[in-house]
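Subject: for your reference before the review

Hello V.,

The reviewers asked for a structural picture of the protein, and I figured it would be easier to keep everything in one thread rather than splitting it across files. Below is the amino acid sequence we used in the manuscript, unchanged from the supplementary table.
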Amino acid sequence: MIYSGDGGAAWGPDEIDDLARRARDGDREALEQLLGVVRPRVLNICRGVLPYSGDAEDACQEAMLNVATRIGTWGGRGRFTTWLHIVAVNSARTAYRRLKNLATPTDFEDGSHDRPDPRTTSVIAGTRLDLLEAMEEIEKDHPQYVEPLLLRDVYGLPYDEIAALVDAPLGTVKAQIHHGRKLARPLLRGEQ
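And here is what came back from the structure prediction:
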């Protein structure tokens, strides 16, 4: 365990990996402890995607439930925190999708059926909501490009780590990212 300067304990990646392995192998106490340790990180990830704290809290809860029920799918090859990041981002994206679908105008009398422009809603941790919109569009026809593209261009993970996470050859991951970028550029420029 690493100790932070303010006297509080901060868990290092090796300790978190060890705790996650024990939780994955059925240690209930380790799972409870792991959930407590990673919750602040998950909440921060969700806050990075969802501008309103209540929405981020809901997405965090969903992510924590997914961690608890799907920890057995973490293969242990990469860092647990990388896998956790994917779970949290996916939960936040799901919440965003759900909220976007609910965000319909209430006044249909004036003929205005426009939804709020997500690009003006929030700028998030190096990513904007327009990127999430672009990923939604790409996912319709090319879902295999979305996760590698987000992991590389938003979270800066190295190609080899992405390949291990998505269980694909390195060349395939590089090609998916390249093609995903080509599809995303016009969407981000509003050239749909």
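For the response letter, the relevant points are probably these. The beta strands are 2-3, 9-10, 123-124, 127-128. The longest helix spans residues 80-102.

Happy to draft the paragraph if you're swamped.

O.
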